[in-house]
Amino acid sequence: MNSSQTSAPAPRRAARRAGLATTAATVLAALAAASAPAAAAGNTATVGQRSPEGGRGCAVVYFDLGETLIHTEDDGSLHYLPEAARHLRELREADVEVGLITNVPPEWGETDAERAAKLREIVDADWTGTGPFAWEDFEGRILTPRTVEERKPSPALFERGSGAADGCHVVYQGETAEELEVARDEGYFTYAVGREGAWPAYLPVPVIEAIAQLP
């Protein structure tokens, strides 16, 4: 499955873009190094805390839903993808705010809340997982298209997500290359899920914590 519209300030978005075209391996190394001076200086802010400057110490992690967090293929099953439930639990334990940026039919409701309620109803009705989907983690942060034109890969939902992040860094995890590219253009740190090989299934929480501490 695949608020007003507000973009991040231009200087900040430009600064983000300068580093977002790097591979995840480079990000892992760079952010590990970047977090060391902050710790040495006594910066003890956690991901969920906002510093007096308002732009440090926090990050909001957005996800696509289908084939990013849950399996939605037409085989009669609907459940978490491997490692998804664990990743959400680790984010919850680290007090990281999360959200969904997902395409649903605009006619499902007049507001994000109405469309999200319809989405939840449909997912829950066909859920085959051993435990329920963690909807409570995303409450108030499920962004859906108000019109057909807002559907991803349009930048509209990513602009709304950035504007709703209250000055925090924004991260987007998904499986669609075109959507990840649009998110990067909108100033997001991005991570492609579902890759083969030694890549982590999801962006590790320590990396997200380091992103939160960036200027």
TrEMBL record:
Coiled coil: none annotated. The keyword DNA damage does not apply. Gene3D superfamilies: HAD superfamily/HAD-like. Residues 1-40 form the signal peptide. Keywords: Signal. This is HAD family hydrolase. It comes from Streptomyces hazeniae.
